[in-house]
Structures are given as C-alpha cells and as structure tokens.
Amino acid sequence: MKNQTKKVITSLSLILTIVCFTSCNSSGSSNEYKSYLFTYFTGNGPGEEAIRYALSSDGYNYYALNNNEPIIDSKVISTSGGVRDPHILRSEDGKTFYMVVTDLYVTEQGWRNYAMILMKSTDLINWTSTVINIPETYPEEFGDIHRVWAPQTIYDNQTKQYMVYWSMQTGNNPDIIYYAYANEDFTGLKTTPKQLYFSPSNAACIDGDIIFKDGQYHLFFKNEDESKKGIMQAVSDNLTSGYKELEGFMNVTKKPVEGSSVFKLIDSDAYILMYDMYSSGKYQFTKSTDLKSFSVVDDAISMNFHPRHGTVIPITEKEEKALLSKWGKLGENAFVSFNTEHVKKNNVLIDDENLSIFLPLKLDANITSLDPKFELTPGISVSPEGAQDFSSGPISYTFSIGNHSKTYKVSAEKNNNPVLDGFYADPEIIYSHKTKKYYLYPTSDGFTGWSGTYFKTFSSPDLVNWTDEGVILDLEKDVSWANRNAWAPAAIEKKINGEYKYFYYFTAAQKIGVAVSDNPTGPFVDSGQPLIAERPKGIKGGQEIDPDVFTDPVSGKSYLYWGNGYMAGLELNADMVSVKENALVIFNPGSTFREGTEVFYRKGKYYFMWSEDDTRSPNYRVRYATSNSPLGPLNIPKNNIVLEKRPEDGLYGTGHNSVIQTPDTDIWHIVYHRFNRPNGINMGDAAGFNREVCIDKLTFNSDGSIIPVKPTLTGIISIEE
Q: Which domain holds residue 409?
C-alpha cells in the first residue's frame, strides 16, 4: 500500500448529466445557499465504487450529474482501485471543500481495507487527494487493523482545526470510532488517532455522523450488536468525548440500514436523516426538528439513480451554475419525469441516439390534447409548452441549455400493458361471484433480492381498469412463523356452508402458508403455521414456493400445487387449510420445468402451465402440458411454448402466469409478468425483481392445443379482446 501519496487532479474532463436523489450534510442555513449537492457511490461491483454527484433544488428531489457516472477516476486517487462512503464538508470560510472517502475495492479486497483518502477543492470540480494508510502511518498503534471505514470531517471550534473521524477494527475487537486532526493543508493527519466512541454493549460501531445543534454534538452511528442493529445516537457537550447513548433507534424502518447522514434544510428548522437500506435497494428519508423523533418522508422524495452511503451540502446559485456550465448536457438523463397523470412513467422510452421519445399512455388519456409536463434537470428549457395533439403523429420538442439544443420527436399511444402502476410480479387472478369482480394477487416487487414482506390486491370489473385495494397480508404484522420473502401467492373463492370464503396461499421464507377471509380484499387471517414446510421425500433440490390452488369443476375437489425445481401436488381437505395425508404426487413435466405451476380446466382437459429458466433471465417463458386428471400423468405436446420474449418490442422475461376464464364464456386471458420496459434488459439480475404485470388474450386450436401468445404493449382494451 502507498503511504501519504499525494496526487493532484486538475480539470476533470468528465462530462456530467443530471439525475435525481436526496441528501445534504451541513448544519448551517444561509440565504446565500440555493440548492444541494449530494455525493455518493452506487454499489459493490466494478465501476460502482466511485464518487458521483447529484443536485437538488429543494433537498427532496435529486438529479444525478454526469449520467450517474463517476466524477473522479477511483484508480487515480486510491490504492485499491475503488472508493466508497464519500463525505463532503464546506470549510468555515466557505471557500474550500473537504471530502474524505474509504479506500476500498470490495471485488478484490472483500471487506478488509487499510486506508482512507483526504481530498480538497476550491470549486467542487478540481480536487487534490492524499492516501492515508493507517497501519503504515501508525505501525505501533494500529499495525493490526483490518478495516478503515466511512471517514467524515467536522470543524472543531475549540481547537480551530478540522477533525477527521472514522471506524476501525483492530485485532479481534469490535469496530470503534476514532478521530484525529488533519494538518493545515488537509494532506495528512497530524495527531495519532484516539477513540471517539465505542458501543456500551461492546458491539461493532460504524458509520459515524456528527451534527452540532443547540450546544450539543449529536453522533449518529450504526450499532452492529446482533440483538439491536440499527442507527443509534449519542450526545455530548464536547466534540471528542463524553458521548452518552440515547435509548432506541433513529431509523424508522425495521429493514437493515447503514450509512446514516443528517443535514439541515436551507432556511428551515427541519433536519433530514437519511440512511442506506442496503438490502432493500433504496434509501429512506426521515424528517425531524429535534433530532430525536423522526417521521418518514419517502413520498416527497424522488431520484433517478440508486445511491449508496453518501452526504449532502448546501451550495450557492453561483456554484450550481458552475457545475451545470461545466457538466450540464442534453441527453436521455435530462428527462427526470413526465408529470402528467396519463403517462406510464416507468415505461417511457427515450432514444437519445435517434432523438425520439415514446410516451405510453393510460387508457383515460386524451391523445388530442396531451401535455407531457416534462420535468427536466436544472437549466434546461423546452418548447413548445402546454397541451398538444398527438393523434396525427409525433410532435417536435426542442430542449435547450445555454447555447446547446436538441430536438426530439415525441410520440404517444395508449398502452394497457402493464396493467398495474409500479412493480409487481407472479400474478394470480380470480373472479369473485360474490362481488362480480376480478382480483389480482401479485408479489410486491421492486425490492432488491425479492425482499418484499407484504401482499396487496387489485380489483377490476372488466380486466381493464384496476383499483388498488391495499395491503391484505403483511408478514411482519400478520404472520408469526415468517417475516421475509413474500412471494408468489395463489387465491381461490369457495362456498362453504352457503357462505363465500377466500383462501390465500402464499410463500414466506421459502415455505407455503394459508390465510382466510370473508372477502376477496381481506383482511386475511393466517392459519398460524406453514401448510407446506418441507421438501417432499426423495426431492434433493429446489424450494417450497409458488403455490397454485385449483378446484376441479368435475369432482368439486380442490388441489394445491407448488415447487421450484420440482412440481408437486396433492388434494386439500374440505376445510381448505389442511392437506390429505399420503396424497402427494410428484409430476414429471420434463427438464424445462423451473417453477410457477398454473392449473385450469377447459372442455374436458386439465391444463398444467409452468415457467422455464430463471426469472432474472430474458428467456424466462411459459410452457404447458395436458392431463385427464388433476393429478396427472402429464401429456407434453411437442411444441408446448405458450409465451416467450418479443425482442422487437423490447419485451423480455415473460413468465410466471395465471389464467382466467370470463364466466359463462369461452373467453380466456393469460396474466403474467415481464421485465420492466424499456430498462429491464439493461439491469442485469435486478431485472428479476423489477417486474410488471400484463394481460393478453389466450386462445386455443380446435383440438384444444394452446395457440402461442404474442405479448403486447397495448394489452386488452375490453374483456372480449
């Protein structure tokens, strides 16, 4: 490792674009400050451990600069090749900026590192940097350290010096927060690190963040105690000693968190505490006036990037203009949002190469008088403004910043796929004879690693227009035996003793449970234990997930199916919450079976559908077999693909379906999920948990074989289609 290696970075020739996020780490408030600069990194992979910038005019809505690419080459300033946890601070005289970062490249080093980097700038654009290798600089005191994490800087009014503080692990001891004073030119440490704070429970203590308020120093940190992990706070009258831990957690969520940062809103008495929900793939923002009680303000937050552990400072209008002048650029990421309620925002297609924009519209849109309500990054203007007639073809819009302009052809069309706003997957659908409505029961998606914990339902009178009926089962509140991985539900309506009952089979923690309600919208009451908790005898791999429930119209008996890596099924007892003993059947759908069994009956045949490949794969698709019985054996047609990707329309990952028959007709529809369009195909594995629910027509040949379904953008506009 290099020791005290000084490097100067002059005129960064990096070109920045503008995106959206929230945070700021200055305790000051001044009329001269007009906006916020956020520094962050994006992940643990190659190229992600690097400093990035974002701007905000209000502290809530942020736009990434440089197309969310690094503003500094990590390989130039670090010894490892990666930097993380950037903390930025304005000097007391307001003219200089200090930034400190962790010198760590997880891909090669894992979670062990030995250095941090001190940086200095007078314009936020050109930075000097120095590597501080702790064991080489302090071999006697800290020769056996294994981690040097998340440095930050604060001005000490007593000593008139800048203090750097960070967490370190020595030997087999827990992580402790240390501090040292920087030299005058911020190129090194002039004092030996001392302990600033350790956890009274002797747990690891990391990610310290100090803010001064009302004569006290408030130290926020992450406690790594196995019994109480989360963001905690300690308070002292002295910057370097005497911290007393407060009771409870500062984070509002129960999800894993780290990297907290507090900043004061400009010209306000309110503070924002933000933290990285690293296992959920999101940040959470909370607000407080006393730094003791915090309320979630996520609904007010927007961002067009996914940051990790960062900080924010307020900046002046002059500083913002300099950043925009240096790095402002017209392009795809200049478009933050389209604020008309009639546009499906997650599905807007921006083609910067061909200078075109496609706006998918909801069915209630008036295409002859549509105002896209472009939300653009700061400094960009658009012409024309107001409502336009898109019915005759694309409209030319010119976007300008400074002396630069681009003209895009903007077209609009009504698309009813996806049918739900937001990210959902694994859709189950039923028709309720009690309410004369259809109900969709999906997985709540958009959570990193499929980490959602609740289920919702949506109702429709016609399969076209859907109403969000809210959460019907929350694992953390309603289920005693599992609190994670709420996946792939199934539901059924059944008349018992003359009354309609609704049975909801769901995956939680790779087990299958059942909950019951008197109404299709719940509330559903869990049975108190998993219905399927173990792998069938003789099955060596796979998971106990993806239930499907089916009532045979011939016999009136009901059956449960499930499995990932294997397809299992058995008969349910009349109570629908227990299974018949010794009734298990393991089906043989062939090597294409992965998961997502769906069973239905039509004209004397039992149809079995399943998904092939991995839900993260663009090639995820649906196949089928038939049978003369609800429990097989299966007859697998030679050409048995039902649904697969359609690259020419940007549709990928089409799978995990259910099927619905319009009552008293031979009209059928298939409900399935796909990757988000247009972004999913470029998201890698994340496409597998950012999915969307679609509906298309399902048709049959005269011999009962299924005609392959063409996934569409338009979807259906009436139940007959």
A: 332-414
